[in-house]
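Dear Dr. L.,

I hope this message finds you well. Following up on our conversation about the binding site, I have prepared a predicted three-dimensional model of the protein together with zinc ion. For your records, I am including the exact sequence and ligand specification that went into the calculation, followed by the structure tokens. Please feel free to forward this to your student if that is useful.
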Amino acid sequence: MGRGRSSRVYVEHPEYGSQPRFTGLDVDPDDDGVHLHWNTGLLSEETQKYLKKLGCDPGSLGQVADVIPKTAIVADVDRQTAASYPVTHYYDIVRRCRDCDRRFIFYAVEQKRWYEELEIPLEADCVRCHPCRKEMRELQEKKFRYEELSHRESLSDVEHLELTLCRLELMEAAVFGGKQIDAVRAFLNQNRDHPRAHEIRERVGKISPEASGGRYVKGRRRNRDA
Ligand SMILES: [Zn+2]
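The resulting structure of the complex is given below.
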């Protein structure tokens, strides 16, 4: 994937694509009644004062993004969560993913959906690209399933395999440390002729025994914060 000369390359979003969605609209954050999200870094003095009054330092809020001009859309302030200061317009903004370090666009329409339909508070920020968010959700589900299976008193053969694959995948994603490898090896010892034994053995071979759970796996999660 080469770097485009005229247009930048952004991580693809399955619904919104990978290029800015131009609406032709720009607003001035210093105009009366205009409030932009803190993630734009374009806060009017009035908004900054308001945030400070709440005990919130606008500079410490989080990652400030590149705002893409002419992509603004109008927000419906009444639909945002009441505790927040209202945001009157959303912009497409460029972010860098916390996990894979690639650039992605947090779309204005996506923000509208987050803050007006899904009732996500305006303070919440989008720090991961769509594929990484999806992967994180899947890993969380896997971890949940692992917890569930590992606390059962007895497991069927199918469940034992599932537990082993959960362990393996969570180690591969550096969510689990290498200690779990012993449990996977125990499974292999008990099931030498299992149809998936060969595949599991190969995957185990690729996991370094000193993996601590904090190592960086390219395209995977960087931190073990779940
Ligand atoms: Zn990412």
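In brief: Residues 97, 99-100, 102, 128-129, 131-132 surround zinc ion (CB under 6 Å).

With kind regards,
A. P.
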